[in-house]
Structure formats: structure tokens, C-alpha cells
Amino acid sequence: MGPLIWLIAGVLLAAAEALTGDFFLLMLAGGALATAGVSAVTPFPVWLDAVIFGVLSLSLLAVVRPMLLRRLGSRPALATNVDALSGKRALVLEEVGEHAGQVKLDGDVWTARPLDLTEVYPPGTTVTVMRIDGATAVVWKGP
Description:
By secondary structure, the chain is of the alpha+beta class. It contains three helices and five strands; from the N terminus they run αααβββββ. About 20% of the residues are buried. The model has no long low-confidence stretch (mean pLDDT about 90).
């Protein structure tokens, strides 16, 4: 009867993990499932099964969970959206100065300003996008 209880607890904890997604309940589920296996092959009393569950669950929480969080919580290797625009080339459509300007960037027209506010880029100039500040491309002609 003991292994069945640990098995049911493990399955319920794993199912509950789907609602949270922080790998805490999944580590407890792993401890419960491993305890179900140990309980099935050994005649240990229930209190010793509980100790095994505690040790296994704490070990999983201390060792496996941080590795999973680092692995799955890191930023994607490929830049997307606005992050992907830095470093791209753009064509000046309207004179880019401290207070006004437009560039064509990846087929879209963006408001732009120069990185060095003392510079002015005439139409037809090719510039590099240094960063996106809100809805404005900060550009630089470069050396």
C-alpha cells in the first residue's frame, strides 16, 4: 500500500507543477516517485520512507532545480524584436539631427536621432543602428 501512495503523490505533484512552472513541485514529485520505488523493493517502515522522501526531495531541490532554472531561464541565443535591430544598417530618409529625422530600417520607417547629438546626417546616408530608445532609432555614421 505504501508504494501506491507515494506513486499517487508523485503523479499529483507532477501534475500540479504544470500550474506553477517553477520546478519546485516537480522536484517533490521526483522525490515521491523515487520513494515509491524504494518502498516497493524494501520493507522499511513508513517513517523511514518519509525520511527518504525528504532527503531525495531536498537533494533534487538543491542540485537539479538550480541547473534547470539556469538552463531554461536564460535569454534566447538569437536576438528578437527590437534587440535584433542593434547593429543593422539603415538609410536616412529625412535629415537626422538632434530633434528630427527618419531612417528606413528593415523595410520600416523609424524616427531617428544621432548618437552624437552634434552630428547631422543628410538624406541618402547609410548609418548603423546603435540602439533603439523607445520608438526612436539611435544611429551613427561611424568612421
